[in-house]
Design brief:
Layout (H helix, E strand, L loop, with lengths): L9 E2 L2 E2 L11 H21 L3 E2 L1 H4 L1 E8 L5 H10 L6 E4 L5 E6 L7 H11 L7 E9 L1 H29 L2 H25 L2 E2 L1 H31 L5 H33 L2 H31 L24
Parallel strand pairs: 3-8
Antiparallel strand pairs: 1-2, 4-6, 4-7, 5-6
Helix pairs in contact: 1-6, 1-9, 5-6, 5-7, 6-7, 6-9, 7-8, 7-9, 8-9
GO molecular function: protein-transporting ATPase activity
Subunit structure: Forms a complex with SecD. Part of the essential Sec protein translocation apparatus which comprises SecA, SecYEG and auxiliary proteins SecDF-YajC and YidC.
Keywords: Cell membrane, Membrane, Protein transport, Translocation, Transmembrane, Transmembrane helix, Transport
Length: 324
């Protein structure tokens, strides 16, 4: 075997010609950016608020079926002509099945609404049937909004417990901070742009929590493994090695998810549009935060090899051998 075909001497278990990307070199500027994004998001949420959808504010929803394909704009115009203001029309998989949402109609029973909506949505040469009319009161919508916030908080608390048990508290706290950052930034963008925030967007937020946590777990697992097998390296070097080794997996996972999200955004219709928009924002934010918030925070808190080594209690240590 010639010298050219021989493996080069390895450093920390890696060939010398394999580059280690110094991710943590820009951890301080990244932390400043994260703080600015978080503060800006809180500012927009506090000042402009969320453009809550009918799922949270209460309203009326109705499912329509037309005999022939129809445009949502034509149905919306017909409803406006009949006196139904601020209605939102979405397709349900085809151009014949639609869903109509509108604010709560005062002094109107469900039976009366069904008749009025059925009359309003009839188009020339295109008969419409109303299959289902649901009325959600404002109090119910407000309770749903409060419970949704509680569900997000409970999810992050359980994730903190899970990562603490499986890895280490410093990594767990960093992971939860990155999840909180992802939620605040994504919701902050919706508040700044005044995009509709409904149950589909909330579902995207919960899905992003799972995606971001999975990314944090993969990185944390590699960090723990490297701390145990690499000797003589500084924590900063071990973290950079772990991030470099998981970079390809992170790129593949994020790129695959983005392809699905883009397909939903452009081909999924109005019902999936805002869900896919929230996911699109969250994929970028979550990938960034798992590196520069979750991992960087744990390193700042003094993450070291001793955090992953099982310490032998004194009572289990071998005593000196008794002379015969």
């Amino acid at each position: 075997m010639t010298e050219n075909t021989q493996l080069k001497q390895k450093k920390y278990g890696r060939p010398d010609d394999e580059r280690i990307i110094p991710f943590m070199k820009i951890s301080l500027p990244a932390a400043v950016i994260s703080i600015i994004l978080t503060v800006a998001s809180i500012f927009f949420i506090a000042t402009k608020g969320l453009n809550l959808g009918l799922d949270f504010t209460g309203g009326v929803s109705a499912e329509l079926n037309y005999s022939q394909p129809v445009k949502a704009s034509d149905v919306n115009a017909a409803l406006a002509k009949a006196g139904f203001k601020d209605s939102v029309v979405q397709t349900l998989g085809s151009n014949r099945d639609l869903m109509v949402r509108m604010p709560v109609q005062e002094n109107a029973e469900a039976a009366d609404l069904t008749k009025e909506i059925t009359t309003a949505v009839q188009l020339p040469g295109n008969k419409a049937e109303v299959h289902k009319v649901d009325v959600v009161g404002g109090q119910v919508g407000n309770e749903l909004y409060v419970r949704s916030g509680g569900a997000v908080a409970l999810a992050m608390l359980l994730m903190l417990v899970y990562v603490t048990i499986r890895f280490e508290f410093k990594l767990a706290l960093g992971a939860v901070l990155s999840l909180l950052h992802d939620v605040l930034v994504t919701v902050g963008v919706f508040a700044m742009m005044q995009w509709p925030f409904d149950l589909t967007v909330l579902a995207a937020i919960l899905a992003l929590l799972g995606f971001s946590l999975n990314d944090n777990i993969v990185v944390s697992d590699r960090i723990r493994e490297n701390f145990r097998k690499i000797r003589g390296a500084e924590p900063l070097e071990i973290v950079n090695i772990a991030l470099t080794e998981t970079l390809r997996r992170t790129i593949h996972t994020s790129a695959t998810l983005l392809l699905v999200v883009l397909a939903m955004m452009f081909l999924g219709g109005d019902g999936l549009h805002w869900f896919s928009v929230a996911m699109f924002i969250g994929v970028f934010v979550g990938t960034y935060s798992s590196i520069y918030i979750g991992t960087a925070f744990a390193l700042w808190r003094g993450l070291n090899r001793q955090d992953f080594i099982v310490q032998v209690k004194p009572e289990f240590e071998e005593e000196n051998e008794i002379p015969r």
